[in-house]
Amino acid sequence: TAFLVLSLVAVTVQIDKIACNSVIDTANDIDELQIFANALKTSKLDSLLEEAGPYTVFAPTNLAFQKAYQMLNTTSMDFWSNEAFVTEVLEHHVVIGKLLLSDLSDGFVMRTLQGQNLSVMVTGESTTLQDAKIVTSDVSASNGVIHTIDRVLLPPPSTQFQDSTAQEDVSSMNIVDTARELQGFSTLISALEVTDLVQKLTLPGPYTVFAPTDAAFAMFLDLLDISVSELLSLPNIADVLKYHVVEGEVYSQTLKDGAQVETLLGPSVTFSAREGRLRAGDAVVTMADIRTSNGLIHVVDKVLRPPRWVSAFRS
Fold first, then answer.
1. Beta-bridge mates of residue 119
2. In which band, very low, low, confident or very high, does the pLDDT at 160 lie, cut at 50, 70 and 90?
3. In terms of pLDDT, which residue wins out, 62 or 52?
4. How many CB atoms within 10 Å of residue 133?
5. Are residues 128 and 184 in the same domain?
6. How far apart are CA 175 and CA 191, in angstroms?
7. Could you give the CA distance from residue 310 to residue 315 in angstroms, rounded to a whole number?
8. Domain holding 33: CATH number?
9. What residues make up the domain containing 295?
10. Are residues 303 and 271 in the same domain?
11. Residue 304: phi, psi to the nearest 5?
């Protein structure tokens, strides 16, 4: 009995330890995910997956990568030598928002960081994405969840080696519908729906939207000590949203350190590009250049705050 109690305590401590780590550190602690974890740590996703998130990561096992090398008739060295291809492959395994296995119902569609969709198929007790089966689910991390899979998810070949600015739109959906499909933007959608911007952002445009996540809005609400319903009822909520919208397509590559972009509200947002991170004001751009039928979406981890609006609200 004493041995069983000690064993349960040890397991509980290990689970708590994992849950305190980020998704990238949690993956690194799992032996069968070492290839994937090492690839993440040497990619541009390293810093992103240490952020608050939350994120859902579909992590191929070491054996899954061995299968991928064979299927592509390549060596591990050649596979990892193409940086652009590797980045797209890794991004195709990450989804914004926390999705547990119970959320992945048959036919469920989600958008990956790479910009493509993943469809879920449930057959009996088996859950698959493309041709990859989830073998271990709901591995908890401090900023999301990991599901291990038995195959590498490869993006469609037509997008694997193209320059992002030269690609045709990968989505037939407009900005609003794309934001609806992405996980973790319910507050932004609700705010758009109480203003005339929800109609404007369905027009041909093009427009560029800096889209705060639900977590970003939660921090903003805490800062102002208001609820979501109080935010949506403010007469000048449209001003906050307009500060996140720019006319025209503004790709992340054009946003150099010190660049300023005029918003629909009028005042410009100033950008900084330091230490490998692009910032809009004090908000980090966590995902850039999501193409839609009428423009671009850049995901940001904070609400962009028009100074005059904040001071007026606080007064």
1. 109
2. very low
3. 62
4. 15
5. no
6. 14
7. 9
8. 2.30.180.10
9. 166-314
10. yes
11. -75, 120
Sheet (strand 283-292) strand order: 245-247, 207-212, 295-300, 283-292, 277-280, 268-274, 260-262
Cis omega (within 30 of 0) for bond into 206: yes
Report whether 279 contacts 272 (CB < 8 A). Answer: yes
Contacts of 2 (CB under 8 A, 6+ apart): none
3-state helix, strand and coil shares in percent for the chain, rounded to the nearest 5? 40, 25, 35
> What sign has the CA pseudo-torsion 193, 194, 197, 200?
positive
Closest CA to 99 of 141, 47, 46: 141
Nearest to 45 by CA among 82, 94, 80: 94
**Taking residues 292-305, what's their average pLDDT?**
88
Co-location of 18 and 109 in the same domain: yes
What integer pLDDT is reported at residue 26 of this predicted model? 92
Amino acid letter, 27:
A
146 plus 99 within the same structural domain: yes
Q: 260 — phi, psi (to 5°)?
A: -125, 135
Whether residue 112 is found in the same domain as residue 134 = yes
Neighbours of 76 (CB within 10 A): 12
For residue 139, pLDDT beyond 90:
yes
pTM for this model (two decimals):
0.52
Q: How far apart are CA 93 and CA 115, in angstroms?
A: 11
Single out the residue in 141, 159, 177 at which a domain terminates.
159
In this predicted structure, the answer to whether residue 192 has a pLDDT above a threshold of 70 is yes
Do 292 and 202 fall into the same domain? yes
**Which residues are paired to 190 by β-bridges?**
none
* pLDDT digits 0-9 by tens, 106-118: 878 888 888 777 8
Largest CA distance in the chain: 70
Residue 251 is encoded by which pair of tokens?
């790709």
